[in-house]
Design brief:
188 residues, alpha+beta, 2 domains, 3-stranded antiparallel beta sheet, 21% helix, binds copper (II) ion
């Protein structure tokens, strides 16, 4: 375990500002970057910073967007987030406070692979796949808004249209499925 940790931080130091191939876990940095950037249109992802789920910067960008190869470590559900959404991601990760006075946007145009969904009521369900309210969404956008703006939106993913995820938590946001003919919203 110690050795692995050392390797990881050494790699982080080496790779922070340059592209370097074949980092740990069998997946190349190029593959991770390509998956991360595939989450949003090129106008958004082209000059985005790409960050791995452990915080390692894989590619420096300059347009204020951050793309990630995974939403949760290893789930292969890539996303591109604006600054407000990244603040929320940090808060989710640390179970910290979050509220926003502005809109935050995230693109997940590849959606979530099979099994990579979540409980619609909590980001911290111990076994999301077996959650009563499991939901897995194909290509979608996510929007976080000041909480009062969620008024009137359904919390039921089963409608297939926009719905509120994690509504009773500080991380409540709107899920907007966008696929025309592919995977929509999968519930139990
Ligand atoms: Cu999403």
């Amino acid at each position: 375990m110690k050795a692995e940790k050392f390797t990881k931080s050494a790699l982080t130091a080496t790779c922070a500002f340059v592209l370097c191939a074949n980092v740990a876990a069998g997946e190349s940095v190029e593959d991770k970057i390509a998956r991360a950037m595939s989450a949003a249109p090129p106008a958004v992802s082209g000059d985005a910073t790409v960050v791995d789920s452990d915080g390692t910067v894989l590619k420096k960008g300059g347009n204020g967007w951050t793309c990630m190869p995974d939403t949760m470590p290893g789930d292969k559900a890539p996303m591109c987030n604006d600054e407000t959404w990244m603040k929320m991601m940090m808060a989710v990760g640390s179970q910290g406070e979050f509220q926003t006075d502005r809109i935050g946007i995230s693109y997940m145009l590849n959606g979530e692979p099979s099994g990579a969904g979540v409980s619609n009521s909590s980001p911290y369900h111990p076994d999301p796949r077996n959650a009563e309210d499991y939901v897995e969404t194909g290509p979608h956008l996510m929007i976080v808004v000041p909480k009062e703006m969620l008024e009137g939106l359904t919390r039921d993913p089963g409608t297939g249209g926009p719905y509120v995820m994690w509504g009773d938590t500080p991380y409540a946001h709107i899920m907007i499925p966008v696929s025309m003919d592919g995977k929509g919203v999968v519930t139990k």
